[in-house]
Design goal:
This protein is of the alpha+beta class. It has helices spanning 22-33, 70-86, 108-121, 143-149, 172-185, 235-242, 325-338, 379-383, 399-413, 436-446, 453-463, 467-476, 492-501, 507-514, 525-539, 543-557, 560-567, and strands at 12-18, 38-41, 57-58, 91-101, 139-142, 158-169, 189-191, 194-202, 205-213, 219-229, 253-261, 270-278, 290-298, 301-310, 349-361, 368-370, 375-378, 388-392. The structure holds flavin-adenine dinucleotide.
Length: 571
């Protein structure tokens, strides 16, 4: 996938997608699969905003039992299955557990009913997903088994535990990239670091966008029959920039964030524990009285989340919302209260990340009330502006489905025969793997002894079938089999592959999104420098540019989330 922004100016596309988060990526791939010509831009890097910063849970529907929302349950179950099918290297079943207490809504009986409904709704789960992807039946276990699975959980009135399976996307950014690479393969013009400054309006309708290449500063027009505004938390900003005077908020925003703990807690499963802070969600038919905080295993760390709070619009920077110390401490305290025996300390926090989600603040409680359903706004109907659709989603899990509905609308606007949506069944680039466990085992058998097992695992999980293409760089230049720095599991070949094949054009693209180098916090400065040197040779960076790239990385992690946490000064 080569970055050629000039391609965007060469023709009038059937569809221009603004925003390449998970929603924009699915829409672009869907439209390309249906035979439409597509341009897709992101002002940052692919999936680099909200889509990268989530808890990585591909929900299966159990959470919607509380709302008695069977429609959403069914949708989530279907999407979970579809994701495991189309990206078997990146999406895997994940065991989850919540302890049961007493006789009320947190009891074994209450969870037994909820799990039975979940199993009934998902009875076909795993049938078409292939080996290693089946979702086992849920079960209720006794207290001693629950304590074996999650030692140290609060024991007062403990009666057992509810066990079920959701799925986990190992790397949301790489999933977004795989979707876009698939679209690129079908001819879509894909470019990162290209910003839509405003929509292009002609005779009252939208006919594309005026964009700026943020690498060169060059501005130009991208023309399209239909434009999709999928810019996530920025949808209102783009509309306001394009229609001054008509300013109003379509989607109020709230803030959400997670922590990354350096250790696994507990080791094998995603554990939901009750927050001690009161929380009331008026939309729930059966409330647990508070929120469940999830301690989710990811690679060799634990993700904890999610915390929510009202959003102060004054903090909205170009790159989103930087987290401050207060927010990290808030979630840390909440997690420690929920799981006191785990003795979670500030020094355990490797990183924190977050994003903005559509929602409001409940005036009665002051608590965040998240938007429950995605919104598709057809501006032709709603505002008399043809050529423009805006979409705002609420979950990573269901993005494919929302994109399908959007592209159905796009197709209906274009007088052209299009095929039906196939994104739920068509495997992504690098993901044409029928039997994931067998495939993985086979790659292990073929693993060269010079490749450390952890490096091998990450390569295969990140790239699927394409892992051999990464290693091919090292066959041609042997030194690329070296790690990016002593002790790092990431190979120089991965950096080169990211630059040559995955459109990584900034140091941050490689460090934060293409590789694992900076996913759990600011990497050591000498690692950042050595990656900058490697990229610099490929991309022709002079010493000043390399320094600027390193400085940008340090700044992106923020003074607190970067160096502050690495120093480990507090207990
Ligand atoms: C803390 C947290 C935890 C979460 N956990 C989960 C979870 O476990 N499971 C789940 O299913 N969901 C989860 N979610 C929700 C999920 O992450 C989001 O619903 C989803 O990622 C939104 O994707 P998006 O494409 O709409 O937005 P984004 O990913 O933000 O994409 C929008 C893109 O538009 C680009 N853009 C903006 N303006 C412009 C412009 N003018 N020109 C060009 N490009 C532009 C941005 O750079 C950005 O990349 C979580 C969210 C948060 C914040």
């Amino acid at each position: 996938m080569k970055r050629e922004p000039s391609r965007l100016a060469e023709r009038t596309f059937d569809l221009l997608v603004i925003g390449a988060g998970v929603y924009g990526a699915w829409a672009a791939w869907d439209a390309a699969l249906r035979g439409l010509s597509v341009g897709v831009i992101d002002r940052g890097d692919f999936g680099g905003a909200t889509s990268a910063n989530n808890l990585r849970v591909i929900h299966g529907g159990l959470r919607y039992v509380q709302h008695l929302d069977f429609h959403r349950m069914r949708e989530s179950i279907r999407e979970q299955r579809a994701l495991m099918h189309v990206a078997p290297h990146l999406v895997h079943p994940m065991m989850c557990a919540v302890p049961t207490y007493g006789r009320g809504r947190r009891s074994r009986l209450a969870f037994r009913v909820a799990l039975a409904i979940n199993d009934l709704m998902g009875r076909n789960r795993g049938r078409e997903t292939g080996p290693g992807k089946a979702i086992p039946k849920s079960k209720i276990v006794k207290a001693d088994r629950m304590l074996e699975l999650a030692p140290g959980i609060p024991e007062h009135r403990l009666t057992g535990g509810a066990i079920w399976h959701d799925a986990q996307v190992l790397d949301p950014e790489r999933l977004v990239l795989a979707i876009l690479r698939s679209a690129d393969d079908l001819g879509a013009a894909v470019a990162n670091h290209v910003e839509a400054d405003s929509l292009l309006v002609k005779k009252g309708g939208v006919v594309g966008a005026r964009v700026t290449d943020r690498l060169t500063g060059e501005s130009f027009f991208v023309r399209a029959r239909v434009t999709l505004n999928l810019s996530g938390p920025w949808v209102d900003r783009l509309l306001a920039a394009s229609f001054p005077g008509k300013r109003r908020t379509l989607f109020p925003l709230t803030q959400a964030w997670n922590l990354v703990l350096r250790r696994r807690l507990p080791p094998q499963l995603a554990l939901g524990l009750y927050s001690r802070r009161p929380f009331k969600d008026r939309d729930r038919r059966f409330s647990l009285g508070t929120r469940l905080l999830f301690f989710t295993p990811w690679r060799d760390v634990t993700l904890v989340g999610t915390s929510h709070r009202p959003f102060d619009a004054g903090r909205f920077g170009r790159g989103g919302v930087p987290l401050d110390e207060d927010e990290v401490l808030h979630l840390l305290e909440e997690a420690s209260e929920a799981y006191p025996e785990a003795e979670i300390r500030f020094k355990d926090v490797a990183f924190a990340f977050g994003g903005l989600l559509p929602g409001t603040v409940d005036p009665g409680t002051g608590h965040v009330r998240l938007m429950k359903h995605p919104v598709i706004r057809d501006h032709a109907r709603a505002d008399g502006i043809p050529g423009l659709l805006t979409g705002v989603g609420v979950k990573f899990t269901t993005a494919r489905l929302v994109a399908e509905k959007l592209v159905d609308l796009v197709a209906s606007r274009i007088t052209k025969e299009t095929e039906p949506c196939r994104t739920g069944t068509t495997r992504l680039k690098g993901a044409e793997i029928d039997d994931w466990p067998a495939f993985f085992e086979e790659t292990e058998e073929r693993r060269s002894l010079s490749l450390a097992p952890l490096t091998h695992t990450r390569l295969v999980e990140n790239h699927g079938l394409d892992y051999e293409a990464v290693l091919q760089h090292a066959h041609e230049e042997e030194h690329l089999l070296d790690p990016v720095a002593d002790g790092s599991p990431v190979l120089k070949a991965e950096v080169i592959h990211a630059v040559r094949e995955e459109m990584a054009v900034k140091l941050l693209d490689v460090i934060r999104r293409r590789t694992h180098i900076g996913k759990c916090g600011l990497p050591n400065e000498h690692v950042a420098r050595s990656v900058a040197a490697l990229m610099g040779e490929e991309l022709g960076w002079d010493p000043a540019r390399r320094e600027a790239e390193v400085a940008e990385v340090l700044e992106a992690y923020g003074p607190f989330l970067g160096k502050g946490l690495q120093r480990d000064t507090r207990q």
